[in-house]
Design goal:
- The protein is of the alpha+beta class.
- The chain is 27% helix and 33% strand.
- It has eight helices and ten strands.
- Helix 1 crosses helix 3 and helix 2 packs across helix 3.
Length: 249
């Protein structure tokens, strides 16, 4: 019986009838090559891989596409290199900044926009606002060691953070600002996680192909008194992120 490593696909993904697509066999061989090259190692060209494995370049291309979507490789200039491990972000009320720092990476954010607008009726209940009330929209690109890895949109009543445009540093932790400058502590939150494709605008801001799967998290947070506080829409690169949580009985 074939040895099975916990966490890996059973029988290495080989169906019971024993026949596998040619591209999948090539993918498995390239995956072994990635382990030998190590993080940052440069892969041979598609032509060289096709000659080495005696297959067409389209077969190699399909294998590389899957490895790219899985986050095993990444494009670098005109070549392809072995990617580092995915960032593990806890599903908790910890901020993005805290989660990235725990893994020895340097968090950052680039401001896309900070603006006020009249709160629409469908947003109002989630942040404890009245329809038409002034609301902040804060949009930032998420960074890890200067690599663009996500896009975050935050909505909060202007009344809860009236000086956000003057007192807040856009490259810093928003949760830290609420806690340290405004004395607002988080109580709990509701989250929904789903897989989506980025819009053309989102893909351009994050710097990814539109076909790359994204992990989308909707969060509705409440403060320590149970009052609705913020709504956050966070879009993470599926090839660079995984999420963890602990379940209790």
């Amino acid at each position: 019986m074939e040895e099975h490593r916990p966490g890996s696909p059973v029988r290495s993904g080989i169906p019971e009838h024993g026949r596998i697509p040619k591209y999948y066999a090539v993918k498995a061989r390239i995956a072994g090559l990635l382990d030998d090259l190590g993080e940052g190692g440069l892969l041979p060209t598609e032509r060289d891989l096709a000659e080495c494995y005696e297959v067409s370049r389209e077969t190699v291309r399909q294998a590389l596409r899957e490895l790219l979507l899985e986050g095993r490789i990444r494009r670098s200039g005109r070549g392809t290199v072995v990617a580092g491990p995915k960032l593990e972000q806890p599903l908790s009320l910890a901020s993005y900044t805290e989660g990235v720092r725990r893994q020895g990476r340097r968090p950052g954010r680039n401001l896309i926009g900070l603006e006020q607008f009249a709160c629409p009726p469908d947003l109002a209940p989630g942040i404890g606002a009245e329809a038409g009330e002034a609301v902040w929209h804060l949009e930032r690109v998420l960074l890890a060691d200067d690599e663009r890895v996500g896009l975050e949109s935050t909505y909060i009543r202007v009344a809860r953070a009236p000086r956000l445009d003057s007192d807040f540093r856009p490259d810093s932790s928003f949760y830290g600002y609420l806690r340290e400058r405004l004395g607002i502590a988080f109580g709990d939150a509701d989250e929904k996680l789903e897989t989506v494709l980025a819009t053309p605008r989102e893909a351009l801001l994050i710097g990814t192909p539109p076909a790359l799967p994204m992990l989308l998290i909707h969060r509705f947070s409440r403060d320590q008194d149970g009052r609705p506080l913020e709504r956050v829409r966070s879009l993470y690169r599926g090839d660079r992120f995984s999420f963890t949580t602990r379940l209790r009985a």
